Amino acid sequence: MHLQKTTNILSRRDFLKLGGLSLTSLASAPFTQAGSLNPDQQGRVIYDHISVYQQPSLTSDLIKQYWVDTILPITEVTIGDEEPAYNRVWYQIGNEGYAHSGGIQPVRTIPNQPAKDIPPGGQLAEVTVPYTDARWEPDLHKEVGYRFYYETTHWVIGLTFAPDGTPWYRILDDKWELILYVLARHIRLIPPSELSTISSDVPAAAKRIEVRTREQVVIAYEWDRPVFMSRTATGAKFSNGQYLTPGGRHDIYHKRPSRHMAAGNLAYNGFDLPGIPWVCYITESGIAFHGTYWHNDYGKPRSHGCINLPSQASKWIYRWSLPAIDPDQQSGYEKFGTRVDVI
Fold first, then answer.
1. Helix (H), strand (E), coil (C) string for the chain
2. What confidence tens digit (pLDDT) does each residue in 59-97 have?
3. Using an 8 Å Cβ cutoff, are 139 and 147 in contact?
4. pTM for the full predicted model
C-alpha cells in the first residue's frame, strides 16, 4: 500500500477547507450545526479571572471581571482584532461586552433522568452541567472530594439514594480507586451506540493522523484524504523544564475513555485532573491526545507534552482511531494502532 509522503505545508486554502470539516472550528465556539448559537449557551470561567471589554479587543475599555467557575451567558461569537494572533475568537457576554474565548469553557446546563439499571461492570458517563461537586458520601452537606466539570467523563458503578430520596451515582475514581458520589441529574450515561467506531470500513493502514506543531493543528486522513481537523495545544516550555510533544512517528496503542491524571506539586506547575475524556496514548511516558477542560485557548503550545483538544474533537479521534475499545471496557491496548506523525 502506497501512502503519499507527508508534507509540512498547510496552505490557506487547505486550512479553510479543513476548517469546514472540523467539529471544533473557531476554538470551540458554541455553534449549533446550523451555525447559530444555542439559545441556552453558557460559558464557565476557567481561569482565576477573566476580563470583559467594551469591544472584542485587549486594547478596548475594561468593563468588569469575573472569577473562576462563574457561569455566564454567551450571546455571540465574533472575531477580534489582531491580538492574540493565534486565537482571535471572542464571546459576547450577555449585553455587557466581550471576553476572549481562551479563558471560557462553552457549557450548557442539561439535567438528566437517573438510570436505575447500571451494568455490573459499570458504564461510562459524562457531566452535562457546568460543574458538579463529587462528594465522599451521597449528601450535599458532606465533604467535597473533587469538582467535576462539563464534558468530563467518569465511570458510574451504581445508583444510590440520599435519606431525602435524591438519587446519586457512585463513581469509581480510576487513579486512586476511590468511590465518589455525584448527583445523578448532573450525569448522562453514554449509550454504547454513541461509541461505535467511525469509518469502520476503512482499512487500518489507510488511517493516519498528523500533529502539526508549527500550525498547532491535528489532521486525520483516510487514504491521504483529510477528513477531520481540529486546533490543538501541544507541549511547551515551562519555568521548571521543557515538556515538548515528542516528534516523529508514533502509534496509538492504549486508549481510555476517562482518565484521572495527576503529577507534581500543584503549587509548582503540577496538576490533578479527574475525568479527562477520550484519552489516546502514543508513548509509554504518557503522551496522549485528550479532551481539555482547564483552558479553551488552542493554537499555541501550552501542555505538559500531551496533545490538548476540545472534548468533542478528542471524542472524534477516540472513536475514529484504532484500537477500538468496547464500550464496557475502561481501557484497551494494541501494539500497533493508528499511525501518528508529530511534525
1. CCCCCCCCCCCHHHHHHHHHHCCCHHHHCCECCCCCECCCCEEEECCCEEEEECCCCCCCCEEEEEECCCEEEEEEEEECCCCCCCCCEEEEECCCEEEEHHHEEEECCCCCCCCCCCCCCCEEEEECCCEEEEECCCCCCCCEEEEEECCCEEEEEEEEECCCCCEEEEEECCCCCCEEEEEHHHEEECCHHHHCCCCCCCCHHHEEEEEECCCCEEEEEECCEEEEEEECECECEECCEECCCCCEEEECCEEEEEEEEEECCCCCCCEEEEEEEEEEECCCCCCEEEECCCCCCCCCCCECCCEEECHHHHHHHHHHCCCCCCCCCCCEECCCCCEEEEC
2. 999 999 999 999 999 999 999 998 999 999 999 999 999
3. no
4. 0.90
Whether a cis peptide bond, with omega within 30° of 0, leads into 39 is no
What distances in angstroms separate CA 183 from CA 135, 179, 220, one per listed residue? 9, 14, 37
Mean pLDDT of 231-244: 90
Residue written as grid cell 469538582: 147
Bridge-based pairing of strands 207-212 and 339-342 is parallel
To 10 degrees, the CA torsion angle through 237, 238, 241, 247?
-30
State how far the Cα of 229 lies from the Cα of 92, in Å rounded to an integer. Answer: 26
Which residues in 60-72 are b (16+ Cβ under 10 Å) and which e?
A: beeeeebeeeebb
Supply the pLDDT for residue 22: 37
**How far apart are alpha carbons 343 and 340 in whole angstroms?**
10
User: By mean pLDDT, which of 137-151, 154-168, 209-223, 256-270 is the weakest?
Assistant: 256-270
Question: How many of the other CB atoms lie within 10 Å of CB of 27?
Answer: 24
